[in-house]
Specification:
single chain, 50% helix, 4 domains, oxidoreductase, 11 strands, 3-hydroxy-3-methylglutaryl coenzyme A reductase, alpha+beta, 587 residues, 15% strand
């Protein structure tokens, strides 16, 4: 039978131990008395509340003194009481969570301590290893030392909900996997440590499987260039998602044909858009007009008063000051050119909406750098200006907003076409009269009844999202880029149909972000807008915006025709439902 013995303390250590036990007894007695008066959790909550509220009060007061140039040593009675309360609560909390918890451990016997250690819950990664006998090799332990608790957690037998196949790794990679699982190596640092993005992704893929006890066998690793996303597109990758890409067209727009790539998992979408392209093509094509081209960013600043905020507003909107502000703004890039500044006041807060051209880039980073330059410049004339945020949501990015619907953001485009009567009947299988009536009652009246903001269309976001994903745009900007109003009107004595889409905020770019990835770059090349236009900066991104609008026009025309002809449900059941035997897939 093993006997656990404590080293015999010296006389000085013995006296210190006795003194600590006496202190512990006193603390325990005082805690028992406090429990009789008030439950312990309420007492702790009270002192926590006092500590943080008083600390916030003092910080707020000192900030006001610094602003008003009041000496910090001039303390009011309220501040004196707050300081006393802060010290008292801090003493209590330190005493409770410091001395009391340590004293409670000293009261335990050796056997009780051992039992307590053995009964601890597993660490955050109980499913780290499939083999409970596996320990980290010595060289990994020496390079990334583990705490006893971490070693204990990775050597315990995992609790696995479902079997996860463990990939075959080299001994070195297996050591790294185990080190990441145990927490010795941060997962986000694998690329920099290994210098191999593919290897880092594979290791992280395996780590996630072991940590979650869930299989990622359907998430592919091979066939992707992980170097292309490092530091710009995605952090901590574990694979890539496959989205099928279809093509619609040719879309005859402004006298040229375009084959439009669409990445989607919604059946019938590409087929429907393709039918709309056919109707436009045989009717002579569509035409487009670009109305505006300018990305926006709107910081919010606070001034001491509303009058002072109004002074800054007048300064920014004064034409005499625009040239000097434009020089400062345009230093951020050789493509950035400030167009205008639109201001709005809310109390003493000022929102400044900067608009600038950004070449072939979508331009969010470019305009943000220019805005920062102007804010630094304004500090000289307005030193009391407090910059609250580089973006104050008056831009407005990735949100449905009236300012984008009215003023536009990115590229503002109108696209139109005249569809002949026989095309409406033979290709679209409906009539001009039915389309005009449906558009009025659905896209206009129905959207108004719903309180729509920029949503006066049938499904513009379907086409925008599919093209954005295929060409490497920011999918989240589909929110404002899908702002669209679809108009239909009978012309030529009611025989032909005039259809148009007006889209005030298409946000696209042909350089930067996801546009440089191989697949997305190929789709841009298919449209003839890959990269930057060297002869006319911005021409490629503007052309892409008109293609998006033309594709939306085709999609609107086809879907509205399907609804008018009563074919929507039938076509979706035909193209949007799998005909395979589901029972064989389950087996």
């Amino acid at each position: 039978m093993d006997v656990h013995r404590r080293p015999i303390p010296s006389s000085g250590e013995h006296r210190q131990t006795q003194k600590l036990k006496t202190t512990t007894t006193t603390t325990t007695d005082s805690k028992s008395q406090s429990q009789a008066l008030l439950p312990l959790y309420l007492t702790n909550a009270l002192f926590f509340g006092v500590f943080f509220s008083v600390a916030y009060f003092l910080l707020h007061r000192w900030r006001e003194k610094i602003r008003t140039a009041t000496p910090l040593h001039a303390v009011s009675p309220a501040e004196t009481a707050a300081i006393v309360s802060l010290v008292a609560s801090a003493v209590y909390l330190l005493g409770f969570f410091g001395v009391a918890s340590r004293a409670s451990l000293d009261e335990l016997s050796d056997d009780e301590i051992i039992l307590k250690e053995d009964s601890r819950a597993l660490g955050p990664c109980p499913a780290a290893l499939a083999d409970s006998s596996c320990l980290l090799p010595n060289k990994i332990q020496n390079q990334f030392p583990l705490s006893p608790k971490a070693i204990h957690s990775v050597t315990k037998e995992p609790q696995v909900d479902s079997p996860v196949p463990i990939s075959s790794f080299s001994d070195e990679d297996e050591e790294i996997v185990q080190a990441v699982v145990s927490g010795s190596i941060p997962s986000y640092s694998l690329e920099s440590r290994l210098g191999d993005t593919r290897r880092a992704t594979a290791i992280r893929h395996e780590v996630v499987q072991r940590l979650t006890s869930r299989s990622l066998s359907g998430l592919p690793l091979e066939g992707f260039n992980y170097d292309s996303i490092l530091g710009q597109c995605c952090e901590m990758p574990i694979g890539f998602v496959q989205i099928p890409v279809g093509v619609a067209g040719p879309l005859l727009l402004d006298g040229k044909e375009y084959t439009v790539p669409m990445a989607t998992t919604e059946g019938c979408l590409v087929a429907s858009t393709n039918r709309g392209c056919k109707a436009i093509h045989v009717s002579g094509g569509a035409s487009s007009v670009l109305l505006r081209d300018g990305m926006t960013r709107a910081p919010v600043v606070r001034l001491p008063s509303a009058q002072r905020a109004a002074q800054l507003k007048f300064f920014l909107e004064d034409p005499l000051n625009f040239d000097s502000l434009a020089v400062v703004f345009n230093k951020s890039s050789r493509f950035a050119r400030l167009q205008n500044i639109q201001c709005a006041i809310a109390g003493k807060n000022l929102y400044m909406r900067f608009r600038c051209s950004t070449g072939d880039a979508m331009g969010m980073n470019m305009v943000s750098k220019g805005v920062q330059n102007v804010l630094d410049f304004l500090q000289d004339d307005f030193p009391d200006m407090d910059v609250i945020g580089i973006s104050g949501n008056f831009c407005s990015d990735k949100k449905a907003a009236a300012v984008n619907w009215i003023e536009g953001r990115g590229k503002s485009v109108v696209c139109e076409a005249i569809i002949k009567e026989d095309v409406v009947k033979k290709v679209l299988k409906t009539s001009v009269e039915a389309l005009v009536e449906l558009n009025m009652l659905k896209n206009l009246t129905g959207s108004a009844m719903a309180g729509a903001l920029g949503g006066f269309n049938a499904h513009a976001s379907n086409i925008v999202s599919a093209i954005y994903i295929a060409t490497g745009q920011d999918p989240a900007q589909n929110v404002e880029s899908s702002h669209c109003i679809t108009m239909m009107e009978a012309i030529n004595d009611g025989k032909d149909l005039h259809v148009s889409v007006t889209m005030p905020s298409i946000e696209v770019g042909t350089v930067g972000g996801g546009t440089q990835l191989a697949s997305q770059s190929a789709c841009l090349n298919l449209l003839g807008v890959k990269g930057a236009n060297k002869e006319s900066p911005g021409a490629n991104s503007r052309l892409l915006a008109t293609i998006v609008a033309g594709s939306v026009l085709a999609g609107e025309l086809s879907l509205m025709s399907a609804i008018a002809a009563g074919q929507l449900v039938k076509s979706h059941m035909k193209y949007n439902r799998s005909s395979r035997d589901i029972s064989t897939i389950v087996q």
